[in-house]
Specification:
The protein has a single domain, classed as Rossmann fold. It is built from two helices and four strands, in the order E-E-H-E-E-H. The protein is globular. 16% of the residues lie in helices and 36% in strands. It is of the alpha+beta class.
Protein backbone atom coordinates (compact mmCIF):
# COMPACT_ATOMS: atom_id res chain seq x y z
CA UNK A 1 0.00 0.00 0.00
CA UNK A 2 1.36 3.44 -0.95
CA UNK A 3 1.66 6.29 1.52
CA UNK A 4 -0.55 9.30 0.75
CA UNK A 5 1.19 11.96 -1.34
CA UNK A 6 1.23 15.52 -0.03
CA UNK A 7 -0.12 17.80 -2.77
CA UNK A 8 2.41 20.20 -4.24
CA UNK A 9 -0.23 22.94 -4.46
CA UNK A 10 -3.65 22.86 -2.85
CA UNK A 11 -6.52 25.25 -2.29
CA UNK A 12 -9.39 24.67 0.11
CA UNK A 13 -12.63 26.58 -0.37
CA UNK A 14 -10.86 29.66 -1.78
CA UNK A 15 -13.08 32.62 -2.64
CA UNK A 16 -11.97 35.94 -4.13
CA UNK A 17 -14.33 38.91 -4.02
CA UNK A 18 -13.51 42.40 -5.28
CA UNK A 19 -15.21 45.68 -4.45
CA UNK A 20 -15.82 47.98 -7.39
CA UNK A 21 -17.48 51.34 -7.79
CA UNK A 22 -20.20 51.35 -10.42
CA UNK A 23 -21.35 54.93 -10.75
CA UNK A 24 -21.97 56.09 -7.20
CA UNK A 25 -22.54 52.59 -5.79
CA UNK A 26 -20.08 50.10 -4.45
CA UNK A 27 -20.60 46.60 -5.88
CA UNK A 28 -19.03 43.28 -4.93
CA UNK A 29 -17.69 41.13 -7.76
CA UNK A 30 -17.67 37.44 -6.87
CA UNK A 31 -14.72 36.40 -9.03
CA UNK A 32 -14.23 32.98 -7.43
CA UNK A 33 -16.31 31.01 -4.92
CA UNK A 34 -15.25 27.94 -2.93
CA UNK A 35 -12.49 26.81 -5.32
CA UNK A 36 -10.73 23.65 -4.14
CA UNK A 37 -7.99 21.76 -5.99
CA UNK A 38 -5.05 19.53 -5.12
CA UNK A 39 -2.15 19.11 -7.55
CA UNK A 40 0.28 16.27 -6.87
CA UNK A 41 4.01 16.52 -7.64
CA UNK A 42 4.61 15.82 -11.34
CA UNK A 43 0.98 16.44 -12.25
CA UNK A 44 0.01 18.95 -14.95
CA UNK A 45 -3.31 20.77 -14.66
CA UNK A 46 -5.18 22.93 -17.14
CA UNK A 47 -8.12 25.10 -16.12
CA UNK A 48 -10.74 25.36 -18.85
CA UNK A 49 -13.91 27.40 -18.91
CA UNK A 50 -15.82 30.30 -20.35
CA UNK A 51 -14.47 33.83 -20.36
CA UNK A 52 -14.94 35.42 -16.94
CA UNK A 53 -15.51 32.17 -15.03
CA UNK A 54 -12.53 32.66 -12.67
CA UNK A 55 -9.67 30.67 -14.26
CA UNK A 56 -7.12 33.49 -14.06
CA UNK A 57 -8.32 34.54 -10.61
CA UNK A 58 -7.87 30.95 -9.39
CA UNK A 59 -4.31 30.89 -10.73
CA UNK A 60 -3.50 34.25 -9.21
CA UNK A 61 -4.87 33.14 -5.84
CA UNK A 62 -2.73 29.97 -5.96
CA UNK A 63 0.36 32.08 -6.73
CA UNK A 64 -0.36 34.74 -4.12
CA UNK A 65 -0.88 37.51 -6.67
CA UNK A 66 -4.32 38.09 -5.17
CA UNK A 67 -5.28 37.42 -1.56
CA UNK A 68 -8.26 35.12 -1.07
CA UNK A 69 -11.29 36.61 0.65
CA UNK A 70 -11.72 33.25 2.36
CA UNK A 71 -10.15 29.80 2.25
CA UNK A 72 -6.59 28.53 2.38
CA UNK A 73 -3.75 27.93 -0.07
CA UNK A 74 -1.04 25.35 0.64
CA UNK A 75 2.35 24.82 -1.00
CA UNK A 76 4.15 21.57 -0.17
CA UNK A 77 1.78 21.09 2.77
CA UNK A 78 2.46 24.53 4.31
CA UNK A 79 -0.29 27.12 4.64
CA UNK A 80 0.88 30.07 2.52
CA UNK A 81 -2.38 32.03 2.57
CA UNK A 82 -1.02 34.82 4.76
CA UNK A 83 2.65 34.92 3.73
CA UNK A 84 4.30 38.31 3.69
CA UNK A 85 5.49 39.81 0.39
CA UNK A 86 9.11 38.68 0.82
CA UNK A 87 8.19 35.04 1.48
CA UNK A 88 5.71 35.00 -1.43
CA UNK A 89 8.47 36.23 -3.71
CA UNK A 90 10.73 33.36 -2.62
CA UNK A 91 7.94 30.81 -3.12
CA UNK A 92 7.04 32.13 -6.58
CA UNK A 93 10.52 31.20 -7.80
CA UNK A 94 9.38 27.57 -7.52
CA UNK A 95 6.02 27.85 -9.34
CA UNK A 96 4.66 29.47 -12.47
CA UNK A 97 1.44 29.92 -14.37
CA UNK A 98 1.35 29.78 -18.15
CA UNK A 99 -1.47 31.80 -19.68
CA UNK A 100 -3.15 30.72 -22.89
CA UNK A 101 -1.94 32.31 -26.10
CA UNK A 102 -5.20 33.29 -27.81
CA UNK A 103 -3.43 33.39 -31.19
CA UNK A 104 -2.03 29.85 -31.08
Amino acid sequence: MNAPVTPLVESRDVSVHFSRWVGSRRRTVYALDDFSIAVAPGETVGLVGESGCGKSTAGRALLGAVKPTKGQVFFEGKDVTDLNRRNWRAMRKQVQMIFQDPYS
